């Protein structure tokens, strides 16, 4: 019905929906910029979930007990599921999933810079759960109120699973820090390596993030990068203390006046290097993704042949 309205009425309706904190749904009219911004954000998010399986999957066969293996396997499978929900959400915006996958493996679309760092010991599995999934929760909880319906609804379930991921990481670290000196050293070493890259997960500082204002106006994004980063530091610093590990930042201290933790300067040159493809594992991650895509070709062909067969059967059965 709305399709017959003139564009300015459609635009007014769209703005009204946003103002009233209601949801934009796939069939609703939306400005091109809104659609493009969402496709870019949701695709980047989906790619991050899929590439994010790699650093930890690396440890599934070497997990130290059956219990740890089962937990890690479940977590990595969850990430695959998150990727699938998000690719489906992108499809509701008119994106083509094959096209998105090609853009990822040809390095034309990004994924989170965090997954370009290596996982050197089993303590990394714990620290990734604690810090990386912890940062993901800070980023994603507000997205449950994103103005685009399918994305917001997908995030509700994803966030529930992310909080399980954060818990399993923290629980692993609690076990390790109560263990031997060597285990405590592993946890400290992993914390030293993952702390700064975790802070970079929130993206560039607000004054270098040109798309933030528009995304906030559209309620695609609910908080700025720096606000979310601060929230993460405030949440994590007391957890580090409880674990008995030191966060590798001499400037980290409670500021009673601000009611927040102050923290040191992030190495933005490193962030740019990793985002532009020159981190320690960028080439390895993409090569692995490409290999997995090629290995899966027969599955896609079989699924397409199966669908075509059913389609033609249905066609013959149908009275039309
Ligand atoms: Fe996830
Ligand atoms: Fe996760």
UniProtKB/TrEMBL annotation:
Molecular function, one GO term: phenylacetyl-CoA 1,2-epoxidase activity
InterPro entries for the chain: Aromatic_CoA_ox/epox (IPR052703), Ferritin-like (IPR012347), Ferritin-like_SF (IPR009078), PaaA (IPR011881), PaaA_PaaC (IPR007814)
Entry keywords, A to Z: Oxidoreductase
This enzyme's EC code(s): 1.14.13.149
Name of one Pfam family that matches: PaaA_PaaC
Annotated GO CC locations: cytosol
GO BP annotations, alphabetical order: phenylacetate catabolic process
Group of enzyme by EC: oxidoreductase
Source superkingdom: Bacteria
The protein's name in its UniProt record: 1,2-phenylacetyl-CoA epoxidase subunit A
Species: Phytoactinopolyspora alkaliphila
Organism classification: Bacteria, Bacillati, Actinomycetota, Actinomycetes, Jiangellales
């Amino acid at each position: 019905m709305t399709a017959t309205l003139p564009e300015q009425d459609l635009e007014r309706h769209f703005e009204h929906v946003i103002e009233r904190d209601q949801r934009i749904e796939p069939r609703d009219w939306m400005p091109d910029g809104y659609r493009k911004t969402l496709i870019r954000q949701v695709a980047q998010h989906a790619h991050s979930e899929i590439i994010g399986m790699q650093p930890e999957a690396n440890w599934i066969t070497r997990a130290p007990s059956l219990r740890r293996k089962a937990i890690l396997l479940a977590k990595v499978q969850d990430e695959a599921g998150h990727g699938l929900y998000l690719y489906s959400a992108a499809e509701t915006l008119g994106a083509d999933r094959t096209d998105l996958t090609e853009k990822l493996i040809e390095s034309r679309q990004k994924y989170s810079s965090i997954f370009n760092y290596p996982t050197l010991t089993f303590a990394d599995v714990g620290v990734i759960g604690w810090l990386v999934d912890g940062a993901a929760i800070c980023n994603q909880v507000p997205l449950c109120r994103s103005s685009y319906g399918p994305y917001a609804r997908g995030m509700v379930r994803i966030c529930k699973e992310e909080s399980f991921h954060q818990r399993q990481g923290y629980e692993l670290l609690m076990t390790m820090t109560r263990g031997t000196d060597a285990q405590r050293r592993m946890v400290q070493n992993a914390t030293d390596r993952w702390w700064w890259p975790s802070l970079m997960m929130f993206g560039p500082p607000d004054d270098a993030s040109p798309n933030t204002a528009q995304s906030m106006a559209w309620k695609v994004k609910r908080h700025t990068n720096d606000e979310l980063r601060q929230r993460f530091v405030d949440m994590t610093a007391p957890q580090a203390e409880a674990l008995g590990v030191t966060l590798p930042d001499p400037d980290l201290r409670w500021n009673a006046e601000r009611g927040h933790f102050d923290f040191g300067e992030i190495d933005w040159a490193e962030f740019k290097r990793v985002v532009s493809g020159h981190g320690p594992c960028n080439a390895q991650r993409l090569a692995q993704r490409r290999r997995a895509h090629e290995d899966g070709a027969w599955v896609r062909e079989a699924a397409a042949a199966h669908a075509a067969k059913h389609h033609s059967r249905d066609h013959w059965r149908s009275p039309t």
